[in-house]
Specification:
By secondary structure, the chain is mainly alpha-helical. Helix content is about 65%, strand content about 5%.
């Protein structure tokens, strides 16, 4: 296989289309959340992930798990948590069974903002997908996104 192999070129073009779709969706959501809620897409995503924690076994996420869920490095996730904590949307506390562990919970203010922002996020996502579906190169990817089912937690 060479760098000019048609299969590699097609794969690279497909990757570019997927990257373009992701970028357009993220930018559309970012603008909507910033305009209506003074919230970035990453901040929204972090609040959403952390709001799903629970007190049962495995219910609290470690920072590495949170970083993986919001697709950021651990250091970037820590900075993001600090920003939201400074805004009163998150709070950190020591794990009661392991003093080395630090948990992060969404505050009542954070839950309220998340609840207000969720329809904006969903509407922006739908709008971005509808717009992308008009592009013949992106339409097949939009159809795939629309048919994917979220994994059910075990």
């Amino acid at each position: 296989m060479t760098a000019t192999d048609p299969a590699l070129t097609a794969l690279a073009q497909s990757w570019c289309a997927l990257s373009l779709l992701h970028g357009r969706i993220e930018a559309h959501i970012e603008r909507a959340l910033q305009a209506k809620h003074d919230l970035s897409a990453r901040e929204y995503s972090l609040l959403d992930v952390l709001s799903r924690q629970h007190d049962g076994d495995g219910g609290h996420l470690q920072m590495k798990q949170v970083a993986d869920a919001v697709v950021l490095s651990q250091s970037a996730t820590t900075r993001l948590v600090t920003r939201l904590e400074d805004r009163g949307l998150l709070e950190r506390y020591l794990c009661p069974t392991d003093r080395r562990g630090i948990y992060t919970n969404v505050t009542e203010a954070g839950l309220k903002l998340l609840e207000e922002a969720r329809p904006t996020n969903d509407t922006a996502l739908r709008g971005a997908l509808d717009e992308a579906a008009k592009n013949p190169e992106l339409a097949p990817l939009v159809r795939v996104v629309e048919t994917l089912k979220a994994p059910v937690p075990a």
